[in-house]
Amino acid sequence: MSDPRCEEMRLRLQADLDGELSPAEAAPLAAHLAACDDCRETAAQLGALSARIRAEATRHAAPAALRARIAQAAAATAAPTLAPAPPPPSGWRRVLGGPRERRRLGAGFGVGFALAASLALAIILPGAGDLPGEVVASHIRALQPGHLMDVASSDRHTVKPWFDGRLDFAPPVKDFAAQGFPLLGGRLDYLDGRAVAALSYGRDKHVIDLYVWPQDKPAPAWSGTIKGYNVERWAQDGMVFWAVSDVEDEQLRRFVAMWRAGA
Amino acid sequence: MPRTEALSSTFEQVVLPHLDAAYNLARWLVRDPALAEDIAQDAMLRALQHFGGFRGDGAGADGGARAWLLRIVRNAAYDAARARGRVREVPLDPAGEDDAPGFDVPDPAPGPEAMTALRQDIARLDDAIAALPIELRECLILCEIEGLSYKEIARVTDAPIGTVMSRLWRARQALLRTQAAEAGR
Ligand SMILES: [Zn+2]
Q1: What is the ipTM of this complex?
Q2: End-to-end CA gap in chain A
Q3: CB distance A45–B12 less than 8 Å?
Q4: Cut 0.95: pTM above it
Q5: Right CATH for A6-57+127-261 from 3.30.200.100, 3.60.10.10, 3.30.420.140, 3.30.70.260
Q6: How far is B116 from chain A (nearest CA, A)?
Q7: Ligand 1 is an ion; residues with CB less than 5 A from it
Q8: Secondary structure of chain B: what % helix, strand, coil (to 5)?
Q9: Where in chain A is the domain with CATH 3.30.200.100?
Q10: Cβ(A177)–Cβ(A154) below 8 Å
Q11: pLDDT averaged over chain B?
């Protein structure tokens, strides 16, 4: 990184990774990356780190009792018997009790609220060496708003180059829109201790995630159901593939068969 | 009171979905679960109280509600930590920030020997992030976990965008150094 051009590229490279660059700003970076091994290496490192953090760093879900207390306070704001909103802070102490009282409040209230997907996520933590569980947890995490795609495109000629410089391998990208499984986009993810490619496909209202990474050791075809999600694994051309979705298993098997046969 | 009701239902639609994000940020800032819960609750109540003044004019699909709430959480966390004398003022001079101890983070308890390799891996990553100085850690969490834009992170942390970018860079370089050191062990 002694080249002053490289110094200059660092923050631009990071901004690209964070999705902050316009195509016009990204063009000089792409040109530099094509010519500079050091910066390509840096980009791959940052990409893998980012994928690892997003996949593995703990996302603390709010305790259910806290959620209940807040929902209760919000509902109380609308209750006609209370003073008009926004109420003075002292009113809130009255509703919620003093600091020491507060944590106990949740239990008694039958406040209805939908548990967020992220709350369910806390329960489905990947177990030790439990790759199928890890794959399903990753899929569920990806279904949260804003997490599904780093590059949203139905054009495989857009999705495939997007992985260049972000991964140390080139994942195959196929589209099956004609067969009713359109490509939605791709993202970096982190599985089995490494950065992997994740491709998302649509099937009616459902999403199929396909994870791909290189693997030398043989991976016999495997399928199963975990937490209600169907999972299929196979190996092909020196890569291992994991498909996961809540579509019916017959649908998922069709998808896998197309992938294995399709050019 | 139709106006009040509309206001409240909007709070539930606009702000309440970000409760997990609020609690997560609080946990990453102070680490103590009970304190984090208090901070998240105070922040949500402040948000509820000031929701009438919130204009959905921010960027993003949610009209900036997430960043608006997280800014309140961050302020509540700094207030709480300051009240406990556990944080010193973040230096205005960006130089030397690397050495700022920030929040007094207790050493995490060592995991049981039987901990699996994967869990150790995750714990190591969490520990490495937790060990970052507060001003680097908050930028990293807001960017990687909460998915905020640079502009939103700048608003939440009260820092210029250029400072956000350099803090993110330093946070990531520190984590890469930790990873490399672990891999070399
Ligand atoms: Zn370079």
Answers
A1: 0.79
A2: 40
A3: no
A4: no
A5: 3.30.200.100
A6: 6
A7: A 6, 36, 38-39
A8: 70, 0, 30
A9: 6-57+127-261
A10: yes
A11: 79
